[in-house]
Please model this.
Amino acid sequence: MKVFISHTAKDRKVADALAYELKKREISTFFDVQFLPGSSLEKQATSSLKESDAIIAILSQHSFSSEWVRKEIDEALFNEKFKNKFFPVLLSKDKEDLSRLPWVLQKINHLRLSPDEKPEILGRKIAHKFQQFIERGL
Model:
């Protein structure tokens, strides 16, 4: 299985920890650190999304205004390939952050974790819950 990790640069440490934890579970990942210098970021992201079997979106106060994250979420929501294979993770202590999400994301079940936890712990928790999500065949 190949998983695309959608995130902002400010959430890079969590994305790195998540990729590490998924690799330990023999799940391959795609995210921007693997993109080749000198080539189109948009083309590489599109290609990675096409090769992915699922998408994990790390959503935080930083991602609410990210055009890239919005495009990746649109792909997850509106591409039939990712039906029941989109795993949103909200990093927030504040219930008000949920209201900042696009309405369609507010209606989807998501994993909510505190951004105050260490990235390694967040990566482990997300990977564990994602593995359960996939094993249930959702």
